[in-house]
Specification:
By secondary structure, the protein is an alpha+beta fold. The radius of gyration is 11 Å and the shape is globular. It is about 20% helix and about 25% strand. The longest helix has 9 residues. It has two helices and five strands, in the order E-E-E-E-H-E-H.
């Protein structure tokens, strides 16, 4: 899923700023959308598109 960040999010392996469009797996992408950190990036979404998700472990980031 391609999402557009609405808030900043960073960790040891990445740094995302508001407005960044990045691929996430569906579960993590939906968690970010539900939490208000991102929105679906309809401009870059393509039916049947496969992307390599950003390697993020948000479970650790929530601590």
């Amino acid at each position: 899923m391609q999402i557009k960040m609405t808030a900043g999010l960073s960790g040891p392996d990445y740094s995302l700023s508001p407005g960044d469009s990045v691929p996430f797996d569906d579960v993590e992408g939906q968690r970010l959308i539900d939490a208000g950190f991102a929105e679906l990036d309809a401009d870059k979404a393509v039916v049947g598109e496969t992307t390599t998700p950003v390697p993020v472990d948000l479970a650790k980031a929530k601590a």
